Amino acid sequence: MEFDDGSTIKADGVFIAYGVAGSTALARKIGAEIDGNKILVDENMATNIPGLYAAGDCTGGLLQISKAVYEGAKAGTEVVKRSRKGE
Ligand SMILES: Cc1cc2nc3c(=O)[nH]c(=O)nc-3n(C[C@H](O)[C@H](O)[C@H](O)COP(=O)(O)OP(=O)(O)OC[C@H]3O[C@@H](n4cnc5c(N)ncnc54)[C@H](O)[C@@H]3O)c2cc1C
Predict the structure, then answer these.
(1) How many domains does the chain have?
(2) CA-CA distance, 5 to 22, in Å (whole number)?
(3) How far apart are CA 54 and CA 72, in angstroms?
(4) Strand pairing partners for 35?
(5) What pLDDT tens digit does each residue of the chain (87 aa) get?
(6) Residue 15, domain member (yes or no)
(7) 39: domain CATH number?
(8) 10 domain-assigned
(9) CA neighbor of 26 nearest in space, from 37, 17, 16
(10) Beta partners for 38?
(11) How many degrees, rounded to 5, is the angle at CA 31 between CA 25 and CA 37?
């Protein structure tokens, strides 16, 4: 890679990050409670909007895949439980 100042870096590959979608924009539009840049959820990943769950980076805390997967599984399990109850 060659930069504007003429300096160069040798690399086998490059990840290009050209902006990211805001994680809370959609939730905010729907009316979910937000604190700063995180969506507020209860222990089952439910937001204040019935039937709306949030998981992963958008709930704040540790920004790691393992946490996102755990929270997603938790939210999914809760949805299944509630749908079995006919809620
Ligand atoms: C450069 C980098 C390196 C990382 N390395 C690691 C690592 O080594 N190990 C690790 O555990 N974690 C790593 N992370 C963090 C990890 O990527 C995140 O914690 C994880 O991806 C969170 O998953 P998520 O599903 O919550 O969010 P995301 O993976 O960000 O997925 C959210 C998705 O929702 C989409 N979206 C947002 N708003 C809308 C909308 N309104 N409509 C439709 N789609 C929408 C976004 O485009 C995105 O595809 C890294 C992050 C970065 C940026």
Answers:
(1) 1
(2) 32
(3) 8
(4) 38
(5) 999 999 999 999 988 877 666 778 889 999 999 999 899 999 999 999 999 999 999 999 999 999 999 999 999 999 999 999 988
(6) no
(7) 3.50.50.60
(8) no
(9) 37
(10) 35
(11) 40
Beta pairing class for 34-35 and 38-39: antiparallel
* 8 Å CB contact between 16 and 38: no
**Full residue range of the structural domain in which residue 63 is found:** 25-84
Residue 33, CB half-sphere, CA atoms under 13 Å: how many? 9
What letters, b where the CB count within 10 A reaches 16 and e where it falls short, cover 30-61? eebebeeebbebeeebbbeeeebbbbbbbbbe
- State the pTM of this model: 0.84
Give the position, in ligand 1's atom list, of the atom nearest the Cα of 72: 25
- Map residue 5 onto helix, strand or coil: coil
Ligand 1 atom 6, closest CA: 64
Q: Which atom of ligand 1 is nearest to the CA of 15?
A: 1
